[in-house]
Fold this protein.
Amino acid sequence: MGGEPKASGRAAAETALAEVYHASYRRLVTQLYAFTTDLTEAQDVVQEAFARALARPGGLVDVDVPEAWLRTVAVNLVRRRWRRRQILATILRRERPVQQLVAEAPGPERSDLRDALATLPRPYREVIVLHYFADLPVDEVASVLDVPVGTVKSRLSRGRTALAARLNGYPTEVAHVRP
């Protein structure tokens, strides 16, 4: 008898997580895709975030905004992967000479914005994607990335300027339209 409430509680947590999955999976993948510019990696980290939520004893029942929790976990996973790649690249450079790889020209499936985002330094790309694509306020972006609010504002400004240069002079300031 003692196991029944836990079993039904676990089932309720899984049902709630399934609802969150159906409601937010595509949006999270889209946001992480803009963040990483790699669809496969975006899908992998979002799936990993959901797997971690499923592994939690209560799922996401105790989380106020499950999508924000999942986004934070996915962003942290991406950042951890990037750090590991940098460490590996450093180790490999020590072991053998660097070889220049010739990249193929991007195909027609790549958009101008994605290409421009991919050329930005990672800190700028992170804040731009979280603020504009994930629609997070500056203070939440600071919380997700664990940096001061002023740093986020500075990176947003510099990132917009860099994007404008790469997108043939699109305006860097948001236009305020009066009704």
